[in-house]
Design brief:
mainly alpha; 0% strand; single chain
Length: 254
């Protein structure tokens, strides 16, 4: 099951945050854009799983419906904030997990799980799920987290510090979430404290005024929380791949 789940999670992240263009995002109220995105989800899932199955088409169809409902919500309620974004992602992840639970052997039945060498030595199944899981986790922590934090901060935009570089804040956010993710994966979560201290020093001037201080604190805590949550989720799924308890995030050296 966890091999299939890792592959489907990887496919979802690729479709939503790598191959989905800004134009597709801006025209989600058009059926053509949603259909194109649904097709991207379908193709990414086929490639990640290494197999073709009618249930993958069902997954893409559910993704299409979810995106359509979100576009309707945004258009009718003029609300493109954090709430519809989180609901949209939650529904996508639940459908991914649901398909993995219903059809756990999709990856095992695919070409990536087959012996590809004549001598019987090369087994992609041994490393591919972990590689896809950690790649997807890194992209989800950085890219998806950027959109989530950005939408969360929309109501507080009046207190935003003046930007010194175009998209500088976005880049800083991606880098800090990437570092947090790597620290957790490497088993060094204590390093996050040093990252917080470093950012506090560097952003001291911007945070010296009350409204700007609150804006920086909210954004920083939201960014760190997202990266930590995705890192823990990634490690839990990796434990599942290795037959360990999901909540055994760290292991004793003894």
């Amino acid at each position: 099951m966890f091999e299939t789940l890792s592959a489907l999670f990887f496919a979802h992240v690729l479709a939503d945050y790598v191959f989905q263009t800004q134009k597709m995002v801006e025209t989600k109220d058009r059926a053509s854009s949603i259909i194109l995105h649904g097709l991207t989800v379908y193709l990414c899932a086929i490639v990640a799983l290494g197999s073709i199955d009618w249930r993958i088409a069902v997954l893409a169809g559910l993704h299409f419906i979810t995106d359509g409902l979100k576009a309707y919500w945004v258009k009718t309620r003029a609300d493109d904030g954090i709430k519809p974004y989180l609901i949209d992602q939650l529904v996508h992840l639940v459908t991914v997990a649901g398909l993995a639970a219903i059809a756990p052997s999709l990856f095992a039945d695919g070409v990536w799980a087959k012996d590809l060498s004549e001598g019987g030595l090369l087994m992609v199944q041994a490393w591919a799920p972990s590689a896809m899981l950690f790649t997807a986790g890194a992209i989800y922590a950085t890219r998806a987290g950027g959109f989530a934090v950005g939408k969360l901060m929309i109501p507080f935009a009046a207190g935003a510090p003046a930007a010194s570089l175009p998209k500088g804040g976005m880049m800083i956010g991606q880098l800090e979430r990437g570092l947090i993710f790597l620290m957790f994966i490497a088993g060094q979560p204590a390093g996050i404290g040093f990252l917080i201290a470093a950012k506090s020093v560097l952003r001291f001037d911007a945070a010296s005024k009350n409204e700007k201080a609150e804006y920086v604190i909210i954004g920083t805590l939201a960014s760190f929380s997202w990266a930590i949550a995705i890192a823990i989720l990634t490690l839990a799924l990796h434990n599942g791949l290795n037959g360990l308890p999901l909540l055994e995030i760290t292991r004793s050296k003894d």
